[in-house]
């Protein structure tokens, strides 16, 4: 299982996605996740780095599940993204660049949806006794989050997801975000029949 958060950008000097992923790494996935190995990595907010990293990650690790995590300034809950887009990447990354043609993967379809049932994942989180809530979204935002998600979906849409988290303490701590992410992963692993 590969679990990735993003590094700092713009007003997100401390990126809640990476803080939540680091916290999850400390907490662990718990007994519900069985013997799944968790690999966590921080990704820079750079289009070229994301493109190269995504291909290398799939080739090197051959993961059973990839969960990308990013921060959204407008999110107020754990936001489970259903799909990603190929075009419209006109926002500058931290190096001041956009991808060629504002496109993620030349010649690919315009929109790809994950095969994982994100509504079922959402229900699993919301029915838990934890104090975090989740929603499902169809718009990851045409920035690096959407870009990395589309990149992975073109490689394997059966085993790729993306989760947006709100900024820290708006309203959740890193620990609470990590707990929400843990619940999401358990639900995904159950769908994939990787755990009971």
Brief summary of the model shown:
The chain has 196 residues and is of the alpha/beta class. Helices cover 34% and strands 18% of the residues.
Description:
The chain has 196 residues and is an alpha/beta fold. It has a single domain, classed as Peptidase C15, pyroglutamyl peptidase I-like (Aminopeptidase, 3-Layer(aba) Sandwich). The chain is built from five helices and eight strands, in the order E-H-E-H-E-E-E-E-H-E-H-E-H. Helix 1 links the parallel strand 1 and strand 2. The model has no long low-confidence stretch (mean pLDDT 93). Belongs to the peptidase C15 family. Keywords: Cytoplasm, Hydrolase, Protease, Thiol protease. GO terms for molecular function: pyroglutamyl-peptidase activity.
Radius of gyration: 15 Å
| Global structural class | alpha/beta
Number of domains: 1
Query: How many angstroms separate the termini?
Result: 16 Å
Q: Provide the succession of SSEs.
A: EHEHEEEEHEHEH
CATH architecture: 3-Layer(aba) Sandwich
Q: What is the tally of beta strands?
A: 8
Percent helix: 25-40%
Mean pLDDT: 93
Strand order of the largest sheet: 2-1-3-8-4-7
Number of helices: 5
Low-confidence sequence ranges? none
The CATH fourth-level homologous superfamily: Peptidase C15, pyroglutamyl peptidase I-like
């Amino acid at each position: 299982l590969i679990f990735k958060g993003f590094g700092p950008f713009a007003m997100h000097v401390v990126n809640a996605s990476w803080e939540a992923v680091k916290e999850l790494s400390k907490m662990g996935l718990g007994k519900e996740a069985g013997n799944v190995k968790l690999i966590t990595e921080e990704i820079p907010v750079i289009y070229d780095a994301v493109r190269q990293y995504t291909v290398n990650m799939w080739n090197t690790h051959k993961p059973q599940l990839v969960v990308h995590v990013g921060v959204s300034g407008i999110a107020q809950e754990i936001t489970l993204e259903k799909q990603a887009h190929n075009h419209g990447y006109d926002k500058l990354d931290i190096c001041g660049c956009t991808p060629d043609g504002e496109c993620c993967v030349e010649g690919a379809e315009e929109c790809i949806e994950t095969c994982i049932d994100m509504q079922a994942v959402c229900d699993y989180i919301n029915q838990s006794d934890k104090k975090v809530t989740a929603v499902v979204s169809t718009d990851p935002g045409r920035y690096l989050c959407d870009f990395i998600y589309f990149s992975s979906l073109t490689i394997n849409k059966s085993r790729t997801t993306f989760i947006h988290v709100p900024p820290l303490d708006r309203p959740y701590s890193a620990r609470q975000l990590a707990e929400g992410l843990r619940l999401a992963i358990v639900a995904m692993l159950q769908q994939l029949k990787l755990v009971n």
